[in-house]
C-alpha cells in the first residue's frame, strides 16, 4: 500500500507543475467548458513572442491535437517562433462533454471559436497578436467566423490551408480538377487503366448535371475522389514526413480511440448547413474581409482543389499586395504531412511581415 | 447500463457470499501490484486482491493441473500525462488455469477474465468555464466518469520457491461515456503477485 501511495504522490506532484505564462518554450494545457462542450486547448511554443497562431482543424470531426502530436516537422519550427494554439472543436478529436445535436451547428462552432479567442485574451492579455489559420473544414469555419459581424477586427491575418470556402463550388471544382489530374497522369503513363476508370466515373457524375450538392448527393463524388486519392498515394508523388506512432501516441498522449469515437458522430446535419445557409451567407459577406489573406493549397489536393483559393482571393476586399497564394507541387490535401518544412517556412515568412 | 451494472454487483455479491463460505478454511490471501500501461506507455499502477471463489478441479500429483475461479477487485490509476488522470475501481471475474510442478516448485497460470468497473477521469491543466457575463471562471476540478466493461488475459509464473509470482497481462475495456460513446482502451500490465499464508 505504501508503494502505491508513493506512486500516487509522485504522479500528483507531476500534475502540480505550473509553467510561467510567457517563455521561449512552454506548453499550457487548458480546458474550456462552454455550453456542454469540454474542449482541450493547448498553447505550445514561444509565448514570449506574443504572436499566437490559432490553428483550426479539419473534418468536421478532426483534431488539432493530432497536428501537434504527429506533425512535429510542421509545428516545431512554428512553435520555436510563435505560440501555437491547438483546440479540438466540439465533439471532435480529444474533446469531451455532452453530445447535444441541437448545438452541433456551424453557428455554435463559430461561438465556440469566439470564446476560445476571448479565453486567450483573458489568459495571455489583450496585447497578444492573433493570427488565424484553418485547414480544410477549419478554413471553412474560419471564413464563416471572420465574415460574422466584426470578428475580423481582432485578427491580424487569415491563413487558409486547403480550405473549401464554398462547399457547393468546391464539389464542382473537384470534378474539373480530378479530371485534369487524371489526364496528366495518363499522359505520363501512370496507372493508366485506373485513371481511365476514374475518367469514366467523372463522365457519369457530369451527366447528372448536379447544380446544388448536399450530403447525400456528394457521396458519389466522394467515392471517385477517394479512388483518385488512392491512385495518387501509390504513385510515389509525395514524401510523407510525420512523427512516428510512438511519438504521437506515447510522447504526446494523443488518444486515437477517443478521436475515433468522436468520429462516429452524425455530421450530416453540419454538412448540410454548409450547403445552406452558410455557403450563401459566406459568399455574400466575403467582400467585408479586409485583413491580409494567405492561401496555401496542394497541387494534388483533390478534396479541396486550389480553385478555391481564387474563389476566396477574388471575393475579399483585401488589397492586392496583402493577398498571397502558394501552390505546393508535391502535396495533396495535407501539406503538413508531405511538405512540412516548406509549409512552415512560408507561414513564418508571412507572419513576420504582419506581426 | 445502470441496470447491467447493478445486476453484476448483485451477482458478484451473491457469488462471493456463497463460495467464500467454502474456501474460508484455507485463509490464504493473494495480492498483486503491477504497472498498468494504457496504450502501453501511459503510466499507471494497479492493485489487486485475488479472492479464490471456487476450485473446480485439481489433480493430486507432482505435475498437476488446477482450475479455479477468482474474483479480483482491483484499483487502477493511470495518467495521460498531457490530458487526464484516470481512476478505475473494478471487479474482475477470472478463470485461472494452472500448470504446476510441486517437486520443482514451479507454476504457470493462464487467466482470462471479464471486467466491470467504473472510470473517473479528471482533466490535467487549467479549466475555464464561460459564464453568463461573457467572461470565464476558473474551475478547480473537471472531468467525467463512465462505466467500463471488458476483459483480458493474465499470465503468471512462480519465482523459484517463494510465494512470489511474476504477472503479465493485457486488457481491453470499453468506456461508455456520458454522451453514449463507446471509447476503447487497451492496456498492458506487468507486476508481482504475492501469496500470503498466515
Description:
The complex is a heterodimer of chains A (about 350) and B (about 200). Chain A has about 350 residues and is of the alpha/beta class. Helices cover about 50% and strands about 15% of the residues of chain A. Chain A contains 14 helices and nine strands. In chain A, strands 1, 2, 3, 4, 5, 6, 7, 8 and 9 form a nine-stranded mixed beta sheet that branches. In chain A, a hairpin with a 2-residue loop joins strand 1 and strand 2. In chain A, helix 4 crosses helix 5 and helix 6 runs parallel beside helix 8. Chain A is globular and about 60 Å long. The termini of chain A are far apart. The mean pLDDT of chain A is about 95. Chain B has about 200 residues and is mainly beta. Chain B is built from one helix and ten strands, in the order αββββββββββ. An eight-stranded antiparallel beta barrel of chain B has the order 1-2-3-4-5-8-9-10. A two-stranded antiparallel sheet of chain B has the order 6-7. Chain B starts with a helix and ends with a strand. The chains are: A alpha/beta (about 350), B mainly beta (about 200). At the A-B interface, helix 1, strand 1, strand 2, strand 5 and helix 4 of A face strand 3, strand 6 and strand 10 of B. Strand 1 of chain A pairs parallel with strand 6 of chain B, so a sheet runs across the interface.
Summarize the SSE layout with pairings.
The complex is a heterodimer of chains A (355) and B (198).
Chain A: H1 2-15, E1 26-34, E2 37-45, E3 51-56, H2 64-70, H3 72-81, E4 83-87, E5 96-97, H4 106-124, E6 129-135, H5 137-146, E7 157-161, H6 167-187, H7 192-207, H8 218-233, H9 245-251, H10 256-263, H11 268-285, E8 293-298, H12 307-315, E9 323-328, H13 335-338, H14 340-354
Parallel strand pairs in A: 3-4, 3-6, 6-7, 7-8, 8-9
Antiparallel strand pairs in A: 1-2, 2-4, 2-5
Chain B: H1 2-23, E1 29-38, E2 44-58, E3 63-80, E4 84-101, E5 106-123, E6 126-130, E7 136-139, E8 143-158, E9 164-176, E10 182-196
Amino acid at each position: 500500500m505504501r508503494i502505491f501511495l508513493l506512486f500516487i504522490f509522485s504522479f500528483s506532484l507531476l500534475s502540480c507543475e505550473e509553467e510561467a505564462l510567457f517563455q521561449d518554450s512552454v506548453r499550457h494545457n487548458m480546458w474550456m467548458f462552454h455550453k456542454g462542450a469540454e474542449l482541450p486547448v493547448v498553447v505550445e511554443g514561444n509565448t514570449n513572442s506574443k504572436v499566437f497562431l490559432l490553428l483550426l482543424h479539419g473534418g468536421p470531426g478532426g483534431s488539432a491535437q493530432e497536428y501537434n502530436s504527429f506533425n512535429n516537422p510542421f509545428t516545431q519550427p512554428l512553435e520555436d517562433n510563435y505560440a501555437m494554439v491547438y483546440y479540438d472543436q466540439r465533439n471532435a478529436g480529444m474533446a469531451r462533454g455532452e453530445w447535444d445535436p441541437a448545438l452541433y451547428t456551424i453557428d455554435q462552432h463559430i461561438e465556440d471559436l469566439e470564446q476560445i479567442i476571448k479565453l486567450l485574451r483573458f489568459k495571455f492579455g489583450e496585447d497578444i497578436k492573433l493570427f488565424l489559420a484553418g485547414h480544410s473544414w477549419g478554413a471553412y469555419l474560419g471564413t464563416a467566423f471572420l465574415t460574422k459581424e466584426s470578428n475580423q477586427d481582432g485578427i491580424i491575418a487569415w491563413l487558409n490551408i486547403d480550405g473549401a470556402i464554398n462547399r457547393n463550388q468546391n464539389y464542382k471544382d473537384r470534378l474539373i480538377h480530378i479530371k485534369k489530374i487524371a489526364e496528366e497522369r495518363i499522359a505520363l503513363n501512370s496507372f493508366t487503366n485506373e485513371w481511365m476508370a476514374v475518367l469514366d466515373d467523372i463522365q457519369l457524375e457530369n451527366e447528372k448535371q448536379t447544380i446544388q450538392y448536399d450530403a447525400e448527393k456528394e457521396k458519389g463524388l466522394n467515392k471517385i475522389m477517394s479512388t483518385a486519392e488512392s491512385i495518387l498515394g501509390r504513385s510515389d508523388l509525395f514524401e510523407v514526413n510525420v512523427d512516428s506512432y510512438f511519438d504521437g501516441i506515447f510522447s504526446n498522449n494523443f488518444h486515437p480511440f477517443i478521436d475515433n469515437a468522436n468520429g462516429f458522430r452524425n455530421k450530416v446535419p453540419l454538412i448540410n448547413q454548409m450547403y445552406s445557409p452558410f455557403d450563401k451567407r459566406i459568399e455574400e459577406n466575403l467582400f467585408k474581409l479586409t485583413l491580409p489573406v494567405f492561401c496555401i493549397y496542394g497541387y494534388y489536393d483533390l478534396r479541396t482543389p486550389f480553385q478555391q483559393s481564387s474563389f476566396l482571393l477574388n471575393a475579399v476586399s483585401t488589397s492586392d499586395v496583402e493577398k498571397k497564394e502558394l501552390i505546393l507541387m508535391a502535396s495533396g490535401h495535407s501539406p503538413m504531412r508531405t511538405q512540412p518544412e516548406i509549409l512552415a517556412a512560408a507561414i513564418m515568412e508571412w507572419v513576420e511581415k504582419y506581426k | 447500463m445502470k441496470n447491467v451494472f447493478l445486476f453484476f454487483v448483485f451477482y458478484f455479491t451473491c457469488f462471493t457470499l456463497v463460495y467464500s463460505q467454502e474456501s474460508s478454511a484455507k485463509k490464504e490471501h493473494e495480492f498483486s501490484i503491477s504497472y498498468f500501461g494504457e496504450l502501453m506507455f501511459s503510466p499507471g499502477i494497479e492493485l489487486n486482491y485475488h479472492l479464490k471463489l471456487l476450485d473446480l478441479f485439481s489433480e493430486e500429483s507432482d505435475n498437476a493441473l488446477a482450475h479455479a475461479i477468482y474474483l479480483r477487485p482491483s484499483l487502477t490509476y493511470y495518467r495521460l500525462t498531457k490530458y487526464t488522470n484516470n481512476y478505475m475501481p473494478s471487479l474482475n471475474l477470472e478463470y485461472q488455469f494452472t500448470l504446476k510442478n510441486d517437486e520443482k516448485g514451479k507454476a504457470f497460470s493462464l487467466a482470462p477474465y471479464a471486467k466491470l468497473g467504473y472510470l473517473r477521469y479528471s482533466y490535467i491543466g487549467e479549466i475555464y468555464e464561460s459564464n453568463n457575463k461573457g467572461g470565464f471562471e476558473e474551475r478547480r476540478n473537471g472531468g467525467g466518469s463512465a462505466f467500463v466493461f471488458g476483459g483480458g488475459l493474465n499470465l503468471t509464473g512462480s519465482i523459484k520457491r517463494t510465494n512470489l509470482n511474476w504477472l503479465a497481462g493485457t486488457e481491453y475495456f470499453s468506456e461508455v461515456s456520458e454522451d453514449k460513446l463507446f471509447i476503447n482502451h487497451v492496456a498492458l500490465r506487468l507486476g508481482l503477485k504475492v501469496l500470503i499464508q498466515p
